[in-house]
């Protein structure tokens, strides 16, 4: 076996035990109303503390969780945790605060998925309006009719649906208008070209398309004030990125975005 294959097997083996060893945590990143600069929601992002010195962001291991199917159970834990946290934030800090959770295609295909979401909401005593589920374009394409049924049921409950990494996949635009979608998250890729006229035109076209369908947009990957200014001029919308915050611990997030600053 090659060294790379051996390393991968070892990593998979560690991932299998990570959950029972309580090595997974969630980091939260703010989602900001571009017009008011208010943090209105947080995206939960999975993190793996493999050892005291080894901390991994989701990008480094999500593909392996998908490949092994481990994402189904871990993803359910993510929804439960995020719902409990959102309930605490709403109770103690901000009554309208919302949480946004990434859903893997494998979770979405699971026949019990809607029931699992309902259970997580009930256990946390969280209203469905407080939950946003992020689904990628590719997840919608795998089993389009089943996905549509699932999204329609979630929508009927009051859960919001966002299309993640919008513009990078193969989603058919004709379908976009017919699915119960509340927002699209325009992929980081598009923000990278905002300093070029052609990049701005493309961005603007996407925003207009989305708005014509009465869908909200969330601009991903906002890193500079210049990018933010350009997006803010495109109309009412939301943004996310390092300019506003890095993904951070519950403690830091609460302190930075949800604690009323004391007026001395
Ligand atoms: P995503 O949902 O598109 O999440 C955004 C990713 O971009 C995060 O990486 C975040 O740390 C990073 N990011 C945030 N702001 C900026 C910015 O201004 N510039 C740049 N360049 N990057 C930024 P992360 O946490 O490594 O997550 C990667 C992907 O893994 C996520 O992409 C999502 O698809 C997936 N993922 C994360 N957590 C979960 C989870 O709990 N369940 C599932 N199924 N997937 C997850
Ligand atoms: Mg996401
Ligand atoms: Mg995204
Ligand atoms: Mg992305």
TrEMBL record:
PROSITE patterns found in the cross-reference section: EAL (PS50883)
Stored InterPro entries: Cyclic-di-GMP_PDE-like (IPR050706), EAL_dom (IPR001633), EAL_sf (IPR035919)
CDD domains membership: EAL
Stored Gene3D superfamilies: EAL domain
PANTHER family for the chain: CYCLIC DI-GMP PHOSPHODIESTERASE PDEF (PTHR33121), SIGNALING PROTEIN YKOW (PTHR33121:SF70)
Designated name of the protein: EAL domain-containing protein
Transmembrane segments: none
SUPFAM superfamilies for this protein: EAL domain-like
Positions of the EAL domain: 8-261
